[in-house]
Every structure is written in C-alpha cells, then in structure tokens.
Write a structure and sequence with these properties.
Length: 184
C-alpha cells in the first residue's frame, strides 16, 4: 500500500507539477494577453483620440470652408446688388438722355417748322413786294408816258392859251405835276 501511496503521491506530484507548469504557462499567457489587451486598449484609445482629433479638424475645416463659402456668397450678393444698382442707374441715365434727346429733337422740329413758316411768309412777302414793284414800275412807266403826253399836250395848250391868260394854264400844270409825284 505504501507503494501504491507513493505512486499515487508521485502521480499526484507529477500532476501537480504538470498543473503548476500549466498554471505558470497560463499565468504567463494571461500576463501576455493582459499586456496585449492593454496595448490594444492604448492603440484603441489612441485611435479614438485620433478619430476625435480628425473629427475636430474636419469640423474646423468644414466650418472654415462654410465660413469662406458664406463670405463668398455675401461678396457675390453685394457685387450682384452693386451691378444691379449700376444697371438701374445706367437705365435711368439712358431714359433721361433719351427724353432729353427727344425733347431736343422735338424742339428742333418745331424750330424747323417755325423757320419754314417764316421762310414761307418771307417768300410770300418777297413775291408780294416783287408784284408790287412790278405793278409800281408799270404804273410809273404809265405815269411817265402819261406825263410825257400831258407835257406835250400842255406845251401845245400853253402856246395856244398864252394869248388867253397864261396864269390859268400854269395853275393846271402845277396840280397835274403834284398828282404825278405820288406814283414815283
């Protein structure tokens, strides 16, 4: 029995040694796994921090980008408003210039019409004056002819009447000459 016991004890010791070895091995593996777990947790933490940092950078970049986009939109809107105001101002100037031009054109047309009317009046007056001049010239020619005939007639009558009373004849010739001066 003792042998059996010794063998049993030895088997138990061998099993215990074996289990102790396995236990040491398990402890070593546990330490290694724990170390690996800590390393992985650190890596995971670093990855989380990197992710948070990247997310922060992304947000910051996005906010800057949005700010720039908003700023550019505002600038473009201001430029557009400025251009629209300039266009409106130019349209108003164009309308004013067109009104002024039309007004000047209308005034020029009125002046041309007035000048034409005045020219027509002047032409009519010139034609009337020419007609009067022709009429007066013909009357003057008639008067001269009549005057010449009367002079001859008066000279003849004067010679005849000299014997009758010269004074009466000279009165008649004065009246005749006065009437003839009206036409000249």
């Amino acid at each position: 029995m003792q042998r059996f016991r010794e063998e049993n004890l030895r088997t138990v010791r061998e099993d215990m040694e074996k289990e102790r070895g396995e236990l040491e091995e398990l402890r070593a593996r546990t330490k290694a796994l724990e170390k690996r777990r800590r390393e992985m947790m650190e890596e995971l933490d670093e990855a989380r921090q990197a992710k948070v940092k990247a997310e922060g950078l992304r947000r910051e970049v996005e906010e800057r980008w949005r700010g720039k986009v908003d700023e550019m939109k505002k600038e473009q809107e201001e430029k557009l408003k400025t251009l629209l105001r300039e266009i409106q101002t130019l349209k108003e100037r164009e309308e004013e210039n067109e009104k002024e031009w039309r007004s000047k054109l209308e005034e020029a047309r009125r002046e041309v019409e007035q000048s034409r009317a005045e020219l027509s009046e002047v032409k009519a007056m010139v034609a009337m004056l020419e007609e009067q001049k022709t009429h007066i010239s013909s009357l003057a020619a008639e008067a001269e002819e009549t005057d010449g005939q009367r002079r001859r007639s008066n000279q003849e009558n004067n010679s005849i009447e000299k014997g009758r009373g010269g004074r009466e004849v000279s009165m008649r010739s004065c009246t005749f000459y006065r009437s003839q001066n009206i036409f000249k």
